[in-house]
Design brief:
two-stranded antiparallel ribbon, 8% strand, 4 strands, 54% helix, mainly alpha
């Protein structure tokens, strides 16, 4: 079951939605849905978006209002679990199945895949996670630490 977004999250979703409401009529083009969702941090596939739109009997040239967008957002977010996805990806490097990854290997991954991080950014993450450059890291603990939401003060 999808978690109901908090008021602040709904406000953020609406702000982003409004950026793509080119006619300022409370609707976005369905073809903009993937851009809006990805700019908000979701990672739906084209197939998933097609299924979401089919449920609403919408095509790429149709429009979505905010309530329809919010339903799609909630459904998509109930499917995504970034912590598990990252953990499973790192598990692929764990040939011994001990739950560990070499710091050097994690550094290489962070600097060469996805949103490539700089050497300085990786150093900052390692300092925050208390990771030694020559050691091993329990990747489940590391993923939990880096995916903890930042407090909203």
């Amino acid at each position: 079951m999808a978690q109901i977004p908090k008021e602040k999250e709904i406000e953020d979703l609406r702000d982003c939605f409004n950026l793509y409401d080119k006619q300022h009529n409370g609707r976005i083009l369905c073809s903009d849905l993937i851009t809006v969702m990805r700019s908000l941090g979701a990672s739906p596939t084209l197939r998933e978006l097609k299924l979401h739109l089919q449920e609403l009997k919408k095509g790429k040239t149709d429009y979505l209002d905010f309530s329809q967008f919010l339903k799609i957002w909630q459904k998509q977010m109930s499917k995504e679990n970034i912590t598990n996805e990252i953990t499973e990806a790192l598990k692929l490097t764990d040939d011994s199945n001990k739950g560990l990854i070499a710091a050097s290997e994690l550094r290489r991954i962070l600097m060469n895949t996805g949103e490539k991080l700089s050497h300085k950014e990786v150093d900052q993450i390692f300092r925050a996670a208390n990771v030694r450059n020559n050691g091993y890291i329990k990747y489940k603990d590391f993923v939990t630490m880096v995916t903890i939401p930042i407090p909203d003060y």
